[in-house]
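Same chain as my last thread, 137 residues:
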Amino acid sequence: MPSSVCEDIARLSCMYITYFKYNIMAKNVTNKKGFKVIALKPEECRQVGFGFQDETDFELICDNCNELINNELYVFYVCVLNRVFCKSCFQNWYEDAVRYPEDIRYEDNKYESIKSLIENHGFKNVDYNTIMSYGQS
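reply #2:
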């Protein structure tokens, strides 16, 4: 095999092993509007394939404000949008968000897809108000 293919296989194997090494404690954010939202720590996002990563670097950027969010306590994966938000952008989006019946099938598919990647590593429910209060004194 050409060396670049071998390097790619080695990198993918390393990512696969790394994925199962970490204890992912994602949280299903229950909310009054019924949206399927998953709160993840930034390092957990790396394990499910969000963000930019190569052999030496990992960057997670909010899909709304484009700010680097590697240091956030939690980031929010909004299934219906297939996007990752920082806490502030998530709160702003949630205030005005409307859940439409025609989006539910797509949202459910995205939710189940991500959930299947993480449920064996810890997946808990937490309500919206609780997760929004994390990190506040």
